[in-house]
Hints:
It is built from 7 helices and 9 strands. The chain has 246 residues and is α/β, with parallel strands linked by helices. It has 2 domains: 28-104 and 207-240, Periplasmic binding protein-like II (D-Maltodextrin-Binding Protein, domain 2); 106-205, Periplasmic binding protein-like II (D-Maltodextrin-Binding Protein, domain 2, 3-Layer(aba) Sandwich), CATH 3.40.190.10. Strands 1, 2, 3, 4, 5, 6, 7, 8 and 9 form a 9-stranded mixed sheet that branches. The relative contact order is 0.22.
Amino acid sequence: MRRSGLAVAVFTLPIVIAACGSNASAGDLTVSAASSLTEAFTQLADEFEAAHPGTSVNLNFGGSSSLAEQVISGAPVDVLATASRVTMNTVQDSGYSEDAPPFATNAVTIAVPTDNPADITSIADLARDGVRVAECAPAVPCGEAATTTLANAGVTVTPVTLDPDVKTVLGRVASGEVDAGLVYATDIPTAAVGEIAIPRDIAASTDYAITVINRTDQQALAREFVDFVLSDDGQQVLRAYGFGAP
Length: 246
């Protein structure tokens, strides 16, 4: 039985996953992953459990920087997946992981309430007086990507809130608390929101990385999970949720 640190909706995909590589002993795995991976990693965990009877994958979602801090502080994490290579580097530089390959990419877009009350039509509209914009905090990968995107567009925005992860931003948009939020493209289909696309030459992208935490006592099983995410079947799941190739 898998437990998740966040309530999520699971999309059923027509994909059958075979057991990956060698069969490690069954056991519990704790996988900490960036919030933007919620839906995709829920599906990946379900498929991994199906291919490894007796295994339970416990998912912990949050902002990448917070998850990295948890690992460095000694939290019992077996696998870490971040939405930023820079964030992953802090874990590696602290000696808690070695190999951390890239496994996906994502890009910034604008989420608006379904009725788009502020009549947002482009990224420039985010700078209009009275437009309430939500962003992730600068220390979080989605916040860093938002800052880069706005700079690329030559647009200055004063957000009304700086949130700890992209799902919080998305929730504020869906509830109508704000007029727009800078999120990842993969977040749009997961909520009742509209999208205002950002030109590809302006929208910043982010690279996701995944690693086995050195201190885990489930090295073999954790490595199999990482290998599954990197496999053709794992990549097919990620593509189905809108992530780009690494």
